[in-house]
């Protein structure tokens, strides 16, 4: 398969990069100085694109690659791929579901604990020597707090299961009610926000869910409410969130994703009720290897004319 | 020279309402004093007197039957001797290492603590610290706050919690609350305790070294006693291994801190989440430089919700005692 051209959209994983280089003719898109010339030169040899949460295959790229057969995403989210265009052109699309579910759910709970119990801030307090001068403040109890989940898919369910072990009552909003679960359903995100203490974004990013957490939702969540985002930055109206946090109209936030990564609004750096992470939801050695193997497995299956492992389109 | 106990200068003492001695105010009392108002007892506040403690006790505490204490005001044989009428020690904490339990047992003095009401908060803090160390939450938050993300790109990978073997040292009310939570993350729970717990579905290890050999992480939840002092030493930490994580929400002295610092600095264990230290509020300076360590200023149980529940329990125990009813949370010898 060495003659098959694979375009890797951005750096994402050294092991994956190495393996793609071994098995295919790998083109590292981020190293190309003149992208349009590159595409003109190589458009007939590139048959696969490997993308992730930062960069995938938009309409423009798809049009520039007439021999493109498959887009394999090193992520479960598909928001960087023009799915309609892929369907139209018969291009296969795969992602990495299930293998990262637990890590993302673990991080969501980790963020809840870090925000409510001020773990990062109290670590900072100790490191700065302030503990010698006085005790740290009381923080907020996590056990028993009401957790509201936007999107009850694999990740949402995994978050619910973990939060239940802390006796947290669970409620959710999703496109349709999941009657097989015992959790309380709210037909709107605003109602969900009004009835929970911690609101978690766990749905996929689509045109419908862009800014699903807007001013109204933030107001409903309220001055004691905490927002956790382990979905995608554009799920939240970021300027609205920032002003709500700065003006203390919302109790706190734990954010793993932002609208314009890696840029994070400066105003958030001075707040003690906010935890900011550099998009590490699936960021463990174990899970990234599993994700890489899934990408490689899907590509191999495709080029050997076998059934894809985790097809989306 | 004083003629009356301090707080009775401005009001007539109610002879019928018995006193509860408080030598130094526990944090609970300082923060929520209004919850300690009861018709069944009144507080005898030794710290408000200018008299040295021994003299104060001799002068005013001869008929005191109950004392409310905490880590700052230990109940030693010497203190007990100065309280000839003492029948009940109430501590506003989960820990009882500041109380001479043997002496209390010998003299038939009952002891109550607040372990039950603090268990959830302590367990939440323990799990929070474990996730923080494994997933580098505090370190990555620092990275973002220091504006390093745009320049540096991807943050180093952490380690998955699911599938980890977590050894709980001490399966009391806090340890079992930790176990329940960790099960939901897909961890395999193991434990060491003085004796196996018949209700526990987890594998029992009779000593902490063997537990460490089989574990990826240790979470310390036991009490500090003569037996558990420095129980977690270099040998245990080496057995835990280079990827091993230690979380301590119990007492600093259960771990040989000097040896732990060496193990961390030399990479003999993978990281630590620590809420307690041998000589608080002093923290070994080597730890302040490490990214694989998360530090917390002994706040594992410090939430308003937990404290208010603890107040209620302390008051309820005291009222039960003075009404000759059974104590709510007597310390049972496990």
UniProtKB/TrEMBL annotation, chain A:
| PROSITE patterns membership | D_2_HYDROXYACID_DH_1 (PS00065)
Return the InterPro entries for the record: D-isomer_2-hydroxyacid_DH, D-isomer_2_OHA_DH_cat_dom, D-isomer_DH_CS1, D-isomer_DH_NAD-bd, NAD(P)-bd_dom_sf
Per UniProt, residues of the D-isomer specific 2-hydroxyacid dehydrogenase NAD-binding domain are 109-281
User: What keywords tag this UniProt record?
Assistant: NAD, Oxidoreductase
Residue limits of the D-isomer specific 2-hydroxyacid dehydrogenase catalytic domain?
Answer: 12-312
Top-level taxonomic group: Eukaryota
Q: Which family does it belong to?
A: Belongs to the D-isomer specific 2-hydroxyacid dehydrogenase family.
UniProt protein name: Hydroxyphenylpyruvate reductase
- The source organism is Hibiscus sabdariffa
Automatic annotation (TrEMBL), chain B:
Q: Which family does it belong to?
A: Belongs to the D-isomer specific 2-hydroxyacid dehydrogenase family.
Which domain of life, per UniProt?
Eukaryota
UniProt domain D-isomer specific 2-hydroxyacid dehydrogenase catalytic: residue ranges: 30-329
Residue ranges constituting the D-isomer specific 2-hydroxyacid dehydrogenase NAD-binding domain according to the UniProt record: 127-300
Name of the protein described by the UniProt record: Glyoxylate/hydroxypyruvate reductase HPR3-like
Q: Which UniProt keywords apply?
A: Oxidoreductase
Organism, scientific name? Hibiscus sabdariffa (roselle)
Gene3D superfamilies this protein is in? NAD(P)-binding Rossmann-like Domain
